[in-house]
Write the structure tokens for this entry.
Amino acid sequence: MRVDTNFFGTVPMPDAGDPAVAPTARRYGNDDVIACYENMLHWSQTADALGFDTVWLTEHHFQHEGYEVLPNLIMFGVHGAARTKELRFGQMFNVVPQWHPLRLAEDFALADLLTGGRMEFGVGRGTVPREAWALGTVVASGDNEMSAEHDRINREVFEEAMEVIKLAWSQERFDYRGKHFVFPPDDVPDRGTFVNDLTLIPKPRRPIDVYQPVTSPETIEYVPRAGHKAVYWLQNADSQKDKWDRYAAIRSELGQPVGPGEDRCLVLNVHVAPTREQALVRGRPGHDEFCKFLSPYGRFSSYRFPDGSKVPFAFQPTLEDSMRLKIQVVGSIDDAVDALGFWRDLLDLRHVCFFFDYPGLRREDIDEQMHLMVEEVFPRLGEPVERRPLPDLAPLG
């Protein structure tokens, strides 16, 4: 099984889980942000030594609250690759509507060249109006009642941008005429003539896989048709199985069938300890802070009450809710083996990404989590932790 890990990039937060502290009341300075980056470099080195395939990072902007403080995943990945041996660095996710598509295509291509093919390309549409509006785009959110118009514009921009990026990577010369993007712009003078096409400099030296999160009905249909790999997170078992199988069905309809578990990744929040009691004491504050921070964005709307009924959009689960549904796993080694085995058997899972980065955990705590997962949980599953061979592309320099 391919095993990855994902970090939000949260500053040290020793009071995580304190119910008296609202997420919006938090404010951290640059020293805290730097401490977060130092931790993530250290955890990348731990992941590299333990055989994790990829560390995925998360793009966000202007978050003085300290939960997600890494704005440029590509730049950080180049730095991290220089300080590790085999680990790949991925973006979960580049928020495409907040980028100029050709700058994103250039930056990733250059990073992939510099690292010898150790970059993974992930894309998403975004979730936070504070970021989107300030960076020149829009996004639907719980803060604007999931505006259908904002979602339509955001989706249009995203899908056009992805067409541009893939065209620029694959064609020696390209041009594009869309609703939101025109490349090259009309009537651009250039040394006595006009520009009719563009050539991206540089290009990647290899085909680039594209990873994208899958939640909404429209995205469920788009991702396999676009040839992207699907990433799933925080879904109840029935919803997850339906989405997982729908991906395979669409690929078959297109004449591009996938094998069991192929081209799909499950992200699973995990905090383990030798005993369940230890895990609950150490994992509850971070779980609760994580849920308190993200519930206004509807991240837990796939949860279900014990009677099977739907939860409200801004539902904030308890740790017991998460454990009951196996959507987040906080428990003993046995609990983690049971939950991971459940998802493996349900989905024929071949690619899992563990999120260990609950707020409030110290550097040594997350080191311990990675060691426990590789050295205790996976041997009990009878699954080796598999790392893909690196491409035969020497890094520049």
Q: What stands out?
A: The chain has a mean pLDDT of 96. The first strand starts at residue 2 and ends at 7. The chain has eleven helices and 14 strands.
